[in-house]
């Protein structure tokens, strides 16, 4: 990972909590155009891994165009949400009033509203994302069922009770004890916290994930301890590491295909794509070596 360290601009010094929130928000604001290019055009844009039931990519990525690869990534990202919905019993747990915490560009929020009729509060700390999510919700015809809220996950609105909170590859940015404490105040008794996240199994895996995504990965046990101290209990824990591993092959292949085919890229764009390519390749290696684990957790408030 020495080459990635040299190229990465991730902060290496300790920061105050409010500074961390601001930096992460700015990080995602700055990535907006790149996210739309890779995972768009929308309206349901996802920024998370995909689910590949056969544990293999259906494409021959070496011969595919960037558009072909992007379509496959998007199909399997939607597949991950459908898999999550099955695991979490979305038809009765995620069909009411829910929080989508760390909503990105709103793909998951729109998914829960369109597919399950949920009333969704889409929470983001990236101010520029809020109007984009609002626009996509209007485009999908669910403007009345999705509202965006720009705030820190540790300051979720006390306008509940909510039936559930969902966090798709976002909880790694949160102060987990404080987040669960806040959730205990906004969810109804018996409400669910549904988490899809990358968990660490060894230190190097944590370094790879944290360096590129500015996140603070943890073990499943770390989550369980934080949740239990706030009055939650773990009721579901599903490992999907092998079925998500092909995402990194497709993601790296898309980046390489763009670098090879798009002569209009600026030097800055090329540098960012080279960083992305190296990170994707490193993450794919860690996934296959067992250094990281992709899991679906569900906690219930006692």
UniProtKB/TrEMBL annotation:
Coiled coil: none
Pfam families from the UniProt entry: Methyltransf_25
Statement: the UniProt record of this protein carries the keyword Nucleotide-binding: no
Methyltransferase domain segment(s): 98-191
Domain of life: Bacteria
Cross-referenced InterPro entries: Erg6_SMT_methyltransf, Methyltransf_25, SAM-dependent_MTases_sf
Residues in the signal sequence: none
UniProt-listed CDD domains: AdoMet_MTases (cd02440)
GO terms classed as biological process: methylation
GO molecular function terms attached to this record: methyltransferase activity
Keywords of this entry: Methyltransferase, Transferase
Name this polypeptide is given: SAM-dependent methyltransferase
Organism: Streptomyces niveus
